[in-house]
Amino acid sequence: MTKFLPLAIIAFASPIMNANSHNIIYPEAPRANVVDEYFGIKVADNYRPLENDTAASTLAWVKAENKVTFDYLSKIPYRDAIRKRIELFNNYPKYGIPSKENDGNYYFFNNDGLQNQAVLYRTADLDTEPEIFIDPNKLSADGTVALKGVYQSHDGKYTAYTISRNGSDWEEIYVMDTKSKQLLDDHIVWAKFTDAQWYGDGFFYSAYDRPEPGKEFSNANEYHKVFYHKLGTSQHDDVIAFENPNEPLHFHTAIVSDDQSLLMIIGSGQGIGNSLIIKDLTVDDAQWVTVELAQDSAIEPIDYIDGKLYIFTSKNTPKNKIAVVDINKPQPEYWVDLIPESDAVLVDAFFAGDNMILRYDKDASHHAYLVSKEGKMIREIALPTFGTITFTGSRKHSEVFYRFTSFCYAGDIYRYDMATGESTLYKSAAPKGFNPDDYTTEQVFYTSADGTRVPMFLTYKKGLKHDKKNPVYLYGYGGFNNSLNPGFSANRLFWLENGGIYAQANLRGGAEYGEEWHLAGTKLQKVNVFNDFIAAAEYLINEGWTSPELMTAEGGSNGGLLVGAAVNMRPDLFRVAIPRVGVMDMMRYHLFTIGWNWAPDYGTSADSPEMAKYLLDYSPIHNIRNDGSQYPAILITTADHDDRVVPAHSFKYAAVLQAANTGNRPKLIRIDSNAGHGGGKPIAKTIDEFTDIYSFIFYNLGITPKLD
Predict the structure, then answer these.
(1) What is the pLDDT at residue 92?
(2) pTM of this structure
């Protein structure tokens, strides 16, 4: 294991003047003499005031930091040209996958190119001109209201939809008459992590109590409840359908079966899986029946047919399986395996007519199969290369559509004929100025510090040489059971056309090889993730792809933590680092909004002396070197409405970093306004952000990009 610099209390000096060749004078952050104690270990938190994101001193510091950052970026001579190029690559029609809904119409999202938000269309016939059903661009002047989900009632008469504002996780629910598109008076606020599950003349949804004014985006969220809303009534009259006052840190999500006879409640938030309880809606005063209370495994309903519940589960099955549950005897000992565990990782499954479609991960790339309802294999669905496949379909209809994406494929949509196995191209996406045939993707495997074999995808221009002169953009995540599959980004094309290599490492902590792979990157094994990332950089250098002077590290959220930790451990490997919306204070992360939900992956500083010390030993803000070590040029990104990973993480990280003696390269923070963790961000803001990221990268690599 890579050794960390030990740290208990460090009082950092005042901000360094003329900190680099650009004579940057960093703003002085508000400070306080705060010392916390964890099982006898004293830890200074000098920048605790920055946790109060609405305080005048914090707001003044944010304004000053942004001035420094944007003054720096404005002096990069090719910044405007980069923006035009990235905008060009984004300006192409983006098609969503059609889905046939309960009113008999097809619904799909389309974006004509540079619309801030994709528009939801509908049509009775895919060969005729569709009509606009919901245009979220008209919900705000600047595109910062995002349409999060759309849920049609069982009879198709009504449609509920959820929106979020400024990138926040807080959601509002509206209801419209499906046929006329007229809004009803129904309006739900302070919902979070919810959909609208229709039942009778209303729907179930999940929400928290109204937060304290001024603390909407920072205070811990507790007591997630499931409510039932009857159409035509006030939210104040909504009935609590389920709550668990003994577990304030659980999420609760309702699912109603298509025949409206079964209500299911999924509980999560304090384990690596979820619990499941069910209730018979056809019986008055029916009691809840427990399927599984522990949150140790995934137990996710797929469909409910003739008294049988089909579930996707990882219980006693690290690579997942599908089981059939008799609701009269729903406990695990009575489950019957339908699709047993295999060598590949089962990702998900759904019913399409009378058949099922299964999606698997094999070495971090998707494979899909058509099977019968009885679990008999019919055929594999052929895909062109490494990629990610996303389906739409349901038991009510025999039509299946899917989108295939990869690093060089923008997202072609196919109609799949289950009878013949034929895939027919329905829509093709083609960014302007980019020819995918000029590029290639290969998968390599490298060895991490403890001997573990780790996969990585490399995408680059054909004919590229192993001469150590290629700039590399190394991206990783490694957490929360999330796989990094091949995917397309128009923003990445600018990097590729300039001879850059995009390297995507499939680190432990993800789901690429099942639950064992995930657990190997959690809690007291978390350092495996950082070592995997460092080993990826070393592999690229040792194999002659690049050199440390041309290496950029980037990651977001949990990946921002990854970049912060890896830079502290091996600053010599990277010339540039971009930690985006990162979890940077591992001692206090669980105290804000839904941070407590990450404890199954991270552990907390309150768990035990061993856990507290382990977190302290890699926490990015607590391990920044102060000894003159040359750090890479660093551009931190966050946003004022990020209530997933509160901006205090990035604020405090930037303050400590700027105050420490880490060499003469710039350490800047870019703080977006009216934006959140990333979901639903308007395309204009996304283009602005990547313009600044790439400008910063090329400038600090000493490369003038080609802008033809």
Answers:
(1) 95
(2) 0.92
